Amino acid sequence: MSQPQLTVVIPVYNEEAGLQRLFDRLYPALDALGIAYEIIFVNDGSRDRSAAILAEQFRLRPDVTRVLLFAANFGQHMAIMAAFEHSRADMVITLDADLQNPPEEIGRLVAMLREGYDYVGTIRRQRQDSAFRRYASRLINRIREKTTRIHITDQGCMFRGYARNVVEMVNACHEVSTFVPALAYTFARRPVEIEVGHEERAAGESKYSFYSLIRLNFDLMTAFSVVPLQLVSLIGMLLSAVSVATYVIVILERLLTRGLSDGIYVVWDRDILNFFLTGVVLFSLGLIGEYVGRIYQQVRHRPRYVVEALLESGDRTLPSPDSTLSAPTTFRAVQPNRRNS
Ligand code: UDP
Ligand code: MG
């Protein structure tokens, strides 16, 4: 494989139903650009036939195809981080495997990168997702704009372009749970945003459940901002002040109406107050736990992902189409990533 000018990164998790359609549009679109490119597919521990389909595609187009096979499901953003570390081109573009963003638009991102922008963000024109996803996403985008210094109009769209300097900075980050577009943005010197098309999933269903979407947004909020933590302290202080004031008022009122004859007692809606405060305490604990959990994960220095194998062709030894995958020139096992230890 000669030195590519463009690396296209595609995370794949249980996408067997749509991969062929992706190949059918992706390769012609990239060939039409007329530049040397490589595609890095990362199989993120799929349970379906995705890995086998990717391996077959590697056999068909070993000149431009590389496949990273994760040993388990480490998440879309870890898959992208792994591909970044293996990428070789000056321009890197990430794209989902489900054809929600048309591969034919890759050329537009390349053009922006060539103009000297080092971060090409995208905004989905007429987003084709459920109403719930659209509204929730709008709300989260707004909160993130206010609490972090990251200014991305449409954070959910993963079809983005990055210049080598930004990719290198992302590679230097050893974060365990992160959100690549936001992380990359913090290193961009000349970011730009363009509008791109958005279609419904070509096949299969979204790989994000309601729960994993919540997890992802917690990652986004806590990885880039300590405002949630500060907010909890502020609410805590406010509540303490309010309860002290309430206490003073209640006691004064009793002293004035009944004098000291009843002694000191507290009955004022104690149960409701207790419920309320318990909720606040639990919420605060949970949020602090989010940070502590991350610190814990970080200090363990565990490998963030484990690559089982890397399918790529050697420089001179391109396999003939009928060679088997396990031939030594095309298949090499990779040690787990232990950079952090
Ligand atoms: N994906 C992944 N690992 C995961 C979840 C998703 O690699 O744990 C991939 C998935 O195969 C797809 C991309 O990430 O290529 C985006 O996922 P999806 O389309 O399900 O997300 P949505 O568009 O619903 O936000
Ligand atoms: Mg999608």
What tags apply to this protein structure?
341 residues, nine-stranded mixed beta sheet, 10 helices, disordered C terminus, binds uridine-5'-diphosphate, binds magnesium ion
Write a structural description.
The chain has helices spanning 19-31, 50-60, 76-86, 106-114, 131-147, 164-172, 180-185, 210-224, 227-258, 270-300, and strands at 6-12, 37-43, 65-70, 91-94, 119-124, 160-163, 191-196, 307-311, 331-333. Helix 9 runs antiparallel to helix 10. With 341 residues, it is of the alpha/beta class. Strand 2 (37-43), helix 2 and strand 3 form a beta-alpha-beta unit. It binds uridine-5'-diphosphate (UDP) and magnesium ion (MG).
How would you summarize the topology of this molecule?
Layout: E1 6-12, H1 19-31, E2 37-43, H2 50-60, E3 65-70, H3 76-86, E4 91-94, H4 106-114, E5 119-124, H5 131-147, E6 160-163, H6 164-172, H7 180-185, E7 191-196, H8 210-224, H9 227-258, H10 270-300, E8 307-311, E9 331-333
Parallel strand pairs: 1-2, 1-4, 2-3, 5-7
Antiparallel strand pairs: 3-8, 4-6, 5-6, 8-9
Helix pairs in contact: 9-10
The protein binds uridine-5'-diphosphate and magnesium ion (MG).
Fourth-level CATH superfamily of the largest domain:
Spore Coat Polysaccharide Biosynthesis Protein SpsA, Chain A
Helix content: 40-55%
Number of helices: 10
**Domains, number:** 2
Q: Give the overall form.
A: elongated
